Amino acid sequence: MLHPTAAEIAARIEELYGAPLPSLEAHAQDQARGMLAALLGSHHTLALAERSVIVQRERLQHMTDPERQIGAREVSHILDCARRLAEAVAVRDTQAATADAVLRSLGRAPAAEPPTTSTAAPVPVPPVPATGPAPSR
Asked: Contact, 79 vs 63, CB < 8 A?
């Protein structure tokens, strides 16, 4: 299953909050922890995991180059790199799925309309009964 990338998640956060990511990050620093901070944290972790996948994959490709000799020492490095690559993929996929699920559950609220200053019709006042002597018989 393909999950959204950090760039796609960033675009969805920007769309949801109506501002660019750097502005949202600055705003979130001044606020109490909330949904925005959680989404930004998830995006940051996803972006870091994506970079880690790239670095570990390139490192693994370098270590397994057909021109290189592979001995016992190199095998331990290859296994360590493969483990780190697997961890980075797991973090990436988990963060992408979580951020995607949260963003799917949220929607941008419509902008509040300014209050209207309508003049309501005055409420009629009930007639006051006349106070006078009671009618005689």
From this structure: no
Asked, for residue 27, whether it belongs to a domain, the answer is yes
Helix, strand and coil percent figures for the chain, each rounded to 5: 60, 0, 40
**Residue 30 burial (CB count, 10 A):** 6
Enumerate long-range contacts of 27-31, CB under 8 Å, 24 or more apart: none
In angstroms and rounded to an integer, the radius of gyration of the C-alpha atoms of the chain is: 32
pTM of the model: 0.72
In a domain, 132, yes or no: no
The pLDDT tens digits of the residues spanning 72-91 come to 888 999 999 999 999 999 99
C-alpha pair distances (Å), 103 with each of 7, 13, 21, 45 = 14, 8, 15, 16
**Structural domain count, the chain:** 1
Q: Is residue 96 part of a domain?
A: yes
